[in-house]
C-alpha cells in the first residue's frame, strides 16, 4: 500500500516536473513577445503622442497667426480711425481759425465804420444858395450876423451835420422853430427858422438824419436855414470855417 502510494506520488511528481519546464518556457516566450509587443506599442504610442503634439503645435501656431492677423487688422483699423479723427479735428480747428479771422476782420471793419460814422459830416441840405455869412452887418438883424444862411425852397429836407443828441426842439423867439444838436466834442449846432420839426429832445442822430424842413418862422424874410455853430454851446463861431476845417465840407 505504501509502495503504491509512493509510486503514485512519484508519478505525480514526474508529471509536475515534466509539465513545469515547457510551461515556463512558453511563459518566457509569451513574456518576450509581450515585451516586444509592449515595445512596439510604446513606439506607436510615442509616435502618436509626437504627432498629436506636432498637430497641437501647428494648430497653436495657426491660432497665433490668425490672432496676430486679427490684431494687426484691428490695429490698422484703430490707426485709420485715429487718423480720420485727427484730420476731422484739424479741419475743425482750421475752420474755427478762419471764422475767428473773419470775425476779427468784421469787428475791425465795424469799428472803423463806427469811427467813420462818429466823425462823418454831411451838408445839412441841398439845392441852396448862401444869402448871408457870419459877422455880416445889416438892418435885417440887431447885431452882426451870427450864422450862415442857406436859402432853399420851403419844405426842403434839413439833416444834422454830424452825429449827435437833440438837446432842444421848440420855438425860440426870433429864431422861429429851432433844433439844437450836441455833438461828441461838446459843440452844439443850431438849425433855425424851420417850418416843422422831425425830432424830439433825446433823439440820437447820425450825420444826415432829418431834423426838420426849411421854413420862414421867427424873424425871417424868406425860406432859409439859419445855421449856427457854438463850441460848448457858448458863443457862435464862423460856420463856414468850421464846416471846412472840422468837417471837410465846402459849402
Automatic annotation (TrEMBL):
Protein's name according to its UniProt entry: M23 family metallopeptidase
4Fe-4S as UniProt keyword: no
Species this protein is from: Kribbella sandramycini
CDD domains attached to this UniProt entry: M23_peptidase (cd12797)
Alphabetized UniProt keyword annotations: Hydrolase, Signal
Pfam families in the record: Peptidase_M23
Cleavable signal peptide: 1-20
InterPro entries according to UniProt: Cell_wall_metabolism_enzyme (IPR050570), Dup_hybrid_motif (IPR011055), M23ase_b-sheet_dom (IPR016047)
GO MF annotations in UniProt: metalloendopeptidase activity
Residue stretches making up the M23ase beta-sheet core domain: 144-239
Amino acid at each position: 500500500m505504501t509502495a503504491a502510494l509512493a509510486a503514485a506520488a512519484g508519478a505525480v511528481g514526474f508529471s509536475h516536473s515534466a509539465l513545469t519546464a515547457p510551461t515556463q518556457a512558453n511563459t518566457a516566450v509569451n513574456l518576450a513577445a509581450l515585451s516586444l509587443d509592449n515595445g512596439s506599442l510604446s513606439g506607436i504610442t510615442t509616435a502618436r503622442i509626437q504627432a498629436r503634439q506636432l498637430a497641437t503645435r501647428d494648430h497653436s501656431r495657426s491660432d497665433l497667426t490668425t490672432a496676430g492677423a486679427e490684431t494687426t487688422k484691428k490695429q490698422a483699423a484703430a490707426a485709420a480711425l485715429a487718423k480720420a479723427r485727427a484730420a476731422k479735428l484739424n479741419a475743425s480747428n482750421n475752420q474755427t481759425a478762419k471764422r475767428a479771422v473773419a470775425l476779427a476782420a468784421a469787428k475791425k471793419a465795424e469799428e472803423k465804420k463806427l469811427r467813420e460814422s462818429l466823425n462823418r459830416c454831411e451838408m445839412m441840405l441841398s439845392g441852396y444858395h448862401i444869402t448871408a455869412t457870419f459877422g455880416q452887418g445889416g438892418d435885417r438883424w440887431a447885431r452882426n450876423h451870427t450864422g450862415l444862411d442857406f436859402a432853399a425852397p420851403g419844405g426842403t429836407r434839413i439833416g444834422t451835420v454830424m452825429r449827435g443828441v437833440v438837446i432842444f426842439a421848440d420855438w425860440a423867439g426870433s429864431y422861429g422853430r429851432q433844433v439844437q444838436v450836441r455833438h461828441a466834442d461838446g459843440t452844439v449846432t443850431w438849425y433855425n427858422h424851420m417850418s416843422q420839426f422831425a425830432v424830439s429832445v433825446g433823439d440820437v442822430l447820425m450825420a444826415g438824419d432829418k431834423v426838420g424842413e426849411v421854413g420862414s418862422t421867427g424873424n425871417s424874410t424868406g425860406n432859409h436855414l439859419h445855421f449856427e455853430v457854438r463850441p460848448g454851446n457858448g458863443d457862435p463861431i464862423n460856420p463856414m470855417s468850421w464846416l471846412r476845417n472840422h468837417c471837410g465840407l465846402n459849402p
